[in-house]
Amino acid sequence: MITMVVFDMAGTTVDENNVVYKTVREAINEEGFDFSLEQVLEVGAGKEKLQAIKSVLALVGKQDDNLANKIFENFRQKLENAYRTQDIFEQSNATRLFHTLKQQGIKVVLNTGYNRETAETLVEKIGWKIGDDIDALVTASDVGENRPKPDMILYAMKQLGVSDAKEVIKVGDSSIDVEEGKNAGCSINIGITTGAHTYEQLKAADPEYIINDLLELLPIVKTANESARSEKAGA
């Protein structure tokens, strides 16, 4: 039975017009580089943002922790300024989906490569409430290792009393989301085409499903739970 769904934030459940990755690109390029947004999204999407910066720099063979940390601090300041004026919206049907899942007794978790301060800012601007619209929020700063390591999903499972990863679905808009779910042992890992990565990029990560709208998750959950009930009845 599916008892928990873990959703990525930006590009999956949150529409912030790629402001984070645009800001990553701006902060990096101020140091004399000329990366495109597509390059930043390809190697940085879904990652903790210092690691995303390091991954972008690695595209040109640059491995310099001091430079990466300098860029990261500049990025944080720029992002804070951007969020003061940036309009933040939920992705289409996100709240409706959350409430439908919760009505079915399924726990709803948001997880993200953002730090907690940034993630809470997004949740607050949209108006979601932990304990009401979602059951938990897990961020990059809450765990020791980040995507594609499974720490955030395992942390959420422990928080909400889910002992078996086979009861968990992971949904995200980047290949690293799919990798994270697989590494956690989630029974179903779903790519969604509303964010950072294309259908082809998501497909390369070999998810069980690729969807174009969040509500497409509901029949997947229904099928999985009907199958689980049938197996239990026949046991």
Automatic annotation (TrEMBL):
SUPFAM superfamilies attached to this UniProt entry = HAD-like
Gene3D superfamilies assigned to the protein according to its UniProt record, in alphabetical order: HAD superfamily/HAD-like, Putative phosphatase, domain 2
At the top level, the lineage of the source is Bacteria
Q: Which Pfam families is this protein grouped with?
A: Hydrolase
**Which PANTHER family does the annotation name?**
PHOSPHOGLYCOLATE PHOSPHATASE, PHOSPHONOACETALDEHYDE HYDROLASE
Record protein name field: Phosphonatase-like hydrolase
Q: Which organism's genome codes for this protein?
A: Danxiaibacter flavus
Upper taxonomic lineage? Bacteria, Pseudomonadati, Bacteroidota, Chitinophagia, Chitinophagales
